Amino acid sequence: MKLHYPLCAMLFLSFGAIAQNQLFIPELISGEVIDLTLQNGEVSFFDGPPTQTMGANGNLLGPTILLNRYQNVTINVGNQLGEETTIHWHGVNVSPANDGGPHVVIGENEVWSPSFPVLDWAGTYWYHPHLHMKTNEHVSKGIAGLIIVRDDFESALTLPRTYGVDDFPLVIQTKSFDNNNQITWDNASDNVAMVNGTLNPHLEVPAQMVRLRVLNGASERILELGMSNNMPFNMIGSDGGLLTAPLTLTRLRLAPGERAELVVNFSGLEGQTAHLMNYGAELPNAIYGAAQPGMGQGQTIPGYAQNPLNGSNWNIIEFNVMTPTADPITEISTQLVTHTPWQEADADEIRAFTFMPEVMGPGALNGGFMING
Ligand SMILES: [Cu+2]
Questions:
Q1: How far is the CA of 16 from the centre of ligand 1 (A)?
Q2: For residues 274 and 262, what is the distance between their CA atoms, to the nearest angstrom?
Q3: Is the Cβ–Cβ distance between 29 and 73 less than 8 Å?
Q4: In this structure, what are the phi and psi dihedrals at residue 96, rounded to the nearest 5 degrees?
Q5: d(Cα 207, Cα 160) in Å, to the nearest integer?
Q6: Looking only at Cα atoms, what is the longest distance across the chain?
Q7: How many Å lie between the centroid of ligand 1 and the Cα of residue 332?
Q8: Can you give the pTM of this predicted structure?
Q9: Distance of CA 334 from the midpoint of ligand 1 (Å)
Q10: Quick one: which of 255, 260, 264, 200 has its CA closest to 227?
Q11: Residues with CB under 5 A from ligand 1 (ion)
Q12: In angstroms, what is the span from residue 129 Cα to ligand 1's centroid?
């Protein structure tokens, strides 16, 4: 039983509650040399003992890194955590040596300095630790940050792109805490939701087109995003950058690690309040975050049913709509970028991948999946 369970249930399930905390916006840093220092910190999320956290250049999360396509960048990652870790540039097109997968360990007090040309299309990527058996712990304790890539195609479009004004990062995470306010990485009790490390957040947005760069930064929870009152929104980008054209949606399912760029039209809503919601009650069973984590046959997770974030609809963030900016974006481009699909005839080699249920037996994960056995 978690000390904060009743508090969380109250905060996240009562729709009339007024959001308490202004959303934290991570600093935006750019240039050919980026310095990240991984460090331990403390954050007072709750009454009582402060929470021991990890962050890059701060107590929690990390700065947003802005890169331009084809620029060169060197990122100096200093490790002051007192233990080994890695930093992985999730989604970014880099060589293995420049990517901090589990094999590129940064030792205690070491600085790792990958250097690479930015080859990616404009889009939203992210970075996080990826050390073998420690990824969940280090991310849950707080190290994660966005990477925004810009290019000439994106820059030529009519889109909101002023960071912190009409273009906002939203790192959505759910976390578990023990009775002493300390972060655990027992995912089934991830009953505390936060955005950019802010509990119960609100954000002042101008009454115009507003871009939201959403990351599902939770370790396991799948989100079913939608606006309160089912207000439609535009999806303009995915993990791979911009779409060919904006897609009008009322729901978007986002898995852990996945990003989406959304544009919400707040025009004419000045003085009003809207929420980005997780419509968890609409998730089909057997998805983490739905009412039931499995399809039956003993596929249950201890504590899962007691977590109020599972199978329910709750506010992720409250938007308070304010006066428009001096030069607002009121319409966005109706065509974005051109994609040329790969042609099978151009392939050098054809390989078959068969997705199949796990073969049950000793060591089986109970409900896992396999590729080619
Ligand atoms: Cu990743």
A1: 35
A2: 15
A3: no
A4: -55, -40
A5: 12
A6: 65
A7: 30
A8: 0.90
A9: 31
A10: 264
A11: 90, 257
A12: 8
Tell me which residue has tokens 């810009």: 150
Task: Say how many Å lie between the CA of residue 144 and the centre of ligand 1.
Answer: 10
Q: Which residues of 94-120 are buried (b: 16+ CB within 10 A; e: fewer)?
A: beeebbbeeebebeeeeebebebebeb
- Tens digit of each residue's pLDDT, the chain (373 residues): 233 333 333 333 333 445 689 999 999 999 999 999 999 999 999 999 999 999 999 999 999 999 999 999 999 999 999 999 999 999 999 999 999 999 999 999 999 999 999 999 999 999 999 999 999 999 999 999 999 999 999 999 999 999 999 999 999 999 999 999 999 987 689 999 999 999 999 999 999 999 999 999 999 999 999 999 899 999 999 999 999 999 999 999 999 999 999 999 999 999 999 999 999 999 999 899 999 887 665 567 888 989 999 999 999 999 999 999 999 999 999 999 999 988 999 999 999 999 988 877 776 766 678 899 8
- CA 324 to centroid of ligand 1, rounded, Å: 36
CA of 87 to the centre of ligand 1 (A): 9
For residue 3, which amino acid is it? L
